[in-house]
Amino acid sequence: MKVLLYSKNQKLLSRSGIGRAMQMQRDSLEENGVEVTDNPEEDYDILHLNSIFPSDYQMAKKAKRAGKKVIYHAHSTREDFENSFTGSNLLAPLFQRWLVKCYELGDLILTPTAYSRSLLISYGIRRPIAVISNGVDTFRFQKNMAVRSRFRREYGFTETDRVILSVGLYFERKGILDFVDMAQQMQEYQFIWFGYTPDIQIPGKVRKAVRTRLPNLTFAGYVSPEEIREAYSGSDLFFFPSYEETEGIVVLEALSCEIPVLLRDIPVYQGWLKNRADVYKGSSQAEFERLISQILEGELPNLTTRGRQRAMERDVFRQARKLYQLYAKAAVL
After folding, report:
1. Exposed, middle or buried by CB within 10 Å (0-12, 13-18, 19+), for 166?
2. Integer-rounded Cα radius of gyration of the chain
3. How far is CA 250 from the centre of its chain?
4. Under 8 Å between Cβ of 203 and 86
5. Any residues with CB less than 8 A from the CB of 17 and at least 6 apart, and which?
6. Residues in Cβ contact with 144 at an 8 Å cutoff, skipping those fewer than 6 apart
7. What is the pLDDT of residues 237-282, one digit of tens each?
8. Whole-angstrom Cα distance, residue 113 to residue 251?
9. What's the per-residue H, E or C state across the chain?
10. How are strands ordered across the β-sheet holding 190-194?
11. Cross-strand pairs, 49
12. In 10 A of CB 189, how many CB atoms?
């Protein structure tokens, strides 16, 4: 079996969760003995698509005409497109129709969670849909206290500062406005956000938020995966107030690195991340403020061992074996 992991637009996606998922797919598949190519001129058995650019749609049409099997990885939904780029809410109905047009070309559709599968079904998609986590490399993403001091020196934090970390694009749906508001309310703690989106792509209120000047708020921009791993180990809390996710690769990374995790209580986490067992969840700014204080002051139990177990269940190499089985399923559809 030979898989074409179509990657024409990987450079555009490299700073997103989709780009990271694509790289993990390639690494884990090759290490599990699956022959992978990114050259559409080579012969292949299965086309695996991760994005919905027009070039992906055309590639799917070409593969279908050639009698190849097509797997469409549904990372995107209407719900996580809303409250992202400038004008995204106005375009959301058209975006949903385009999603359906693309995904319907799949002999099999893959999506990261039962929640995202339910959204696709609600759009009227009737192709087979399987749930498979994007996965996390739990070997690479491990707690490493040796890098804690280096991370803190790099960003000007002391050893006694309590550092609250988040990672994501500058999207309103990622909870960036709430993150800035929390920094304003809790100036006894240091807040740092990794990720970046050009100003031209985001609404004015988000641009204003990321230009907020506070002594305890840092926007560090886009950094390498190695630096993100150091940030997980060097921080004291991963606070991810996102309003909508299809899974949340950065959540898996944080769990794998055994940092306490505080999430917004949204449907995507139901059934696999239990509140006050694996992570802490909140629903309002007042609740987040209370939980942040209780977690950092040691007033609540440390859940990081259980969090690491949840990450291990979604280890990327386990997902690679599942993916191979799904390829075999697609080959006979």
Report:
1. buried
2. 20
3. 5
4. yes
5. 75, 134, 247, 248, 249, 250
6. 229, 230, 233, 257
7. 999 999 999 999 999 999 999 999 999 999 999 999 999 999 999 9
8. 13
9. CEEEECCCCHHHHCCCHHHHHHHHHHHHHHHCCCEEECCCCCCCCEEEECCCCHHHHHHHHHHHHCCCEEEEECCCCHHHHCCCCCCHHHHHHHHHHHHHHHHCCCCEEEECCHHHHHHHHHCCCCCCEEECCCCECCCCCCCCHHHHHHHHHHHCCCCCCCEEEEECCCCHHHCHHHHHHHHHHCCCCEEEEECCCCHHHCCHHHHHHHCCCCCCEEEEECCCHHHHHHHHHHCCEEEECCCCCCCCHHHHHHHHCCCCEEEECCHHHCCCCCECCCEEEECCHHHHHHHHHHHHCCCCCCCHHHHHHHHHHCEHHHHHHHHHHHHHHHHHC
10. 217-221, 190-194, 163-167, 237-240, 261-264, 280-282
11. 72
12. 19
- 């505080």: which residue's tokens? 262
Structure tokens at 253: 């990374």
pLDDT (tens digit per residue) in 120-164: 999 999 999 999 999 999 999 999 999 999 999 999 999 999 999
pLDDT single digits (tens) 43-53: 999 999 999 99
Query: Can you read off the two tokens belonging to residue 280?
Result: 């802490």
Expressed in angstroms, the distance from the first to the final Cα of the chain is 15
Counting Cβ atoms within 10 Å, is residue 41 exposed (0-12), middle (13-18) or buried (19+)? exposed
Q: Which residues pair with 208 in a beta bridge?
A: none
With beta carbons less than 8 A apart as the criterion, state whether 34 and 1 touch. Answer: yes
Query: How big is the chain, counted in residues?
Result: 333
Q: Which residue has the tokens 């004015």?
A: 204
Lookup result for tokens 């024409």: 8
